[in-house]
Specification:
2 domains, transmembrane helix, 3 helices, three-stranded antiparallel sheet, transmembrane
């Protein structure tokens, strides 16, 4: 299982689990308001384009930009999340969690997150559970909020959680010695 990991893993680091997230398109509760707003925006742009087209000429085409923005605002994040998960790979070692992605515009990336005795683990149950173990701040015009990082939508979330808890216990024992 260590093929391709030369130069990435520490000498005494070993891979304990590898997996991939579920790539299904998921509509979550937190997307309802942006989804409805985007559809309203696109609907108004469509109405405007129809009315402008009745006047003749090509003036109606200015509404295409607004229509596109509305559609992308409503369904873009839903499709992006599925696309990102379909192009992600997860690895857990006895020290770190790795998230690898290969996205069309951004290219390949490999992020690692140490798993220590003080790492806060959160498992979110559902049809396809997620396991969160890190966060990063994201700035917006309304301030800063934390974005959760972890193994998103994996069938083996409970098993991986137990392995991470074992890593934490070993780290705490090592710190106590």
């Amino acid at each position: 299982m260590t093929d391709g990991w030369d130069g990435i893993l520490d000498p005494d680091e070993e891979i304990l689990w590898q997996g991939r997230p579920d790539g299904a398109i998921v509509f979550s509760v937190d997307r309802i308001i942006p989804f409805v707003f985007g559809l309203f925006f696109a609907g108004f742009a469509l109405f405007w384009m129809i009315m402008a087209a009745q006047a003749g000429g090509f003036f109606w085409m200015f509404g295409l930009l607004h229509f596109g923005v509305g559609i992308s605002f409503s369904i873009g994040p839903i499709l992006w999340s599925a696309y990102r998960r379909r192009n992600s790979w997860y690895t857990l070692t006895n020290r770190r969690a790795f998230i690898a992605t290969n996205l069309a515009i951004r290219g390949k990336s490999l992020d690692s997150y140490p798993i220590t005795g003080s790492t806060i683990l959160e498992i979110v149950d559902g049809p396809m559970p997620s396991l969160w173990f890190a966060s990063r701040p994201k700035r917006s015009k309304h301030g800063t909020r934390n974005i959760k990082i972890g193994f998103e939508r994996i069938a083996q979330a409970r098993d991986v959680y137990r392995v991470m808890r074992d890593i934490q216990m070993k780290d705490r024992q090592k710190q106590a010695d």
